[in-house]
Amino acid sequence: MIDNQMTWYMIVLSALLVNNIVLIRFLALCSFFGVSNRIEVSLSMGMAVTFVLALASAASWIIWYFLLVPLNIEYLRTASFILVIATLVQLVEMYIKKTAPSLYNALGIYLPLITTNCAVLGIALLIIDYRLGFLNSIIYSISVALGYTLSIIIFAGIRERIEMAPIPDILKGAPIIFITAGIMSLAFLGFAHLFGL
Amino acid sequence: MIYAILGLGVLGFVFGVSLSLASKKFFVKLDPREEAVIKALPGSNCGACGFPGCVGFARAIIRGDALTNACTAGGADVTRNVSSIMGVEAVIKEKEVAGIMCKGGKKEARERFRYMGVNDCKAAILIAGGNKSCTYACLGLGTCERVCPYDAIRIDNNYLPVVDEEKCTGCTLCAVNCPKFIIKMLPISNKIHIRCNSLDKGAVTRKNCSVGCIVCKKCEKVCPLGAITIINNLAVIDPLKCDNCRKCVPECPTDTIEDYYDGEPKYASLMEKLLDESKLKTAVG
Predict the structure, then answer these.
(1) Would an 8 Å CB–CB cutoff place A9 in contact with chain B?
(2) Is A169 an 8 Å CB contact of chain B?
(3) Which CATH class is domain B96-259?
(4) Does B8 touch chain A (CB under 8 A)?
(5) Is the pLDDT of residue B285 over 50?
(6) B280 pLDDT above the threshold of 60
(7) Where would you tag: which of A81, A141, B135, B211 has the fewest CB atoms within 10 A of its CB?
(8) Selecting from 3.90.1170.20, 3.30.420.40, 1.10.15.40, 1.10.3720.10, what CATH number does the domain B32-86 have?
């Protein structure tokens, strides 16, 4: 488990490997299977997730400690976090479209798709549950997103090989992809309880 | 309670106002032609043009990466509209429709076993290549019917797909999704189809199916234009050479050749056909 007393590198290690968001926590699976066809595409998806996740967790941290807790309405956190994330992604999309069209084109459709990515809401809720400070929240969410990027790039690399491999007819397409993801998840279980995390 | 309503209400209000302000501040002027092209396209997002949806196709046209006649679903009208928006000459292609290259339904084609799995061809083919004796035969479970965005294909009582040429737009989704590759895209003026897909030898095909091509070569001999050739144990019509004269139809002993013809011949003479072809070629070139 993670708490605010941990050093920053332990938080990074935990989020990146030991409690990998996709392969151990099974969040963000939709995009994990959806956009892992090619390594370049999954890299830009990972970039977009990192960007949004850092902003979203910072914004929801502020909303939680400066609005929901003082007003004693903690039970509204899911609703208000969804509101925050959706608005934020929209704002970011408009801003990037205006100021950096090349970045906007590189992120493409993935930027608005992240609004519905469960990893974003999941991390926003987790940083509250772990009682992390503001700086630690941002470190944690960025390293979670890097863990996501790591696993999706590994997966995309394997999938590029699978395209060429002689696979039995009965496993072609989705089945072999699911099996691969399962084996990857088992491999990441090897990190379990590393350094007592 | 009152704090909950106020808190979330104010939050939503602030976000809404800031979003609407931001949308004004960060407003990006789009190419006005893009909107016009999007409006002119059918909007069914079939993907036949090879771009992700109609919006993706419209952007590709604006960038100059796509031809204005690449929308097969829209046909000639859409090509004309889009070309006039972009200010280029419209090159009209002949409409292509899906042709079902198998006639072996439940009555005609023998079955090896009774399939009781998921009601979909793509699932059925995983079990020993489907339940028909002929490995090239239509499984008749209606993957093409479900995949068609225009309702142009239906499965008849004999478990064979029937194409409605009026509704078919030539988007090729059915042809791509058929696991047996039975559906071919043919020009709509081509009314004579050899409805068999079997590359087996004649004797094998005859055992498996009562309407399969048994490679007797009668159609090849009778065709005055040389439009029919036997390739890999299967008679194939070249739609560019065929003029719908129907001489092959009564010759076929197994009744494989289907006649969708209901009107005047496509061309009054061979000369006219050749003239028309040369016109087509110059248009393409």
Answers:
(1) no
(2) yes
(3) alpha beta
(4) yes
(5) no
(6) no
(7) B135
(8) 1.10.15.40
A79 — contact with chain B (CB < 8 Å)? yes
A14 SS3 class: helix
Inter-chain contacts counted by CB atoms under 8 A, chains A and B: 46
> What is the residue extent of each domain of chain A?
8-196
Residue A64's pLDDT is what?
Answer: 92
**Residue type for A122, please?**
G
For residue B27, the chain A residue with the least C-alpha distance is A98
What is the ipTM score, two decimals?
Answer: 0.72
A95 in contact with chain B, both atoms CB, cutoff 8 A: yes
pTM, rounded to two decimals: 0.58
Residues from chain A that touch B3, judged by Cβ atoms under 8 A, are 71-73
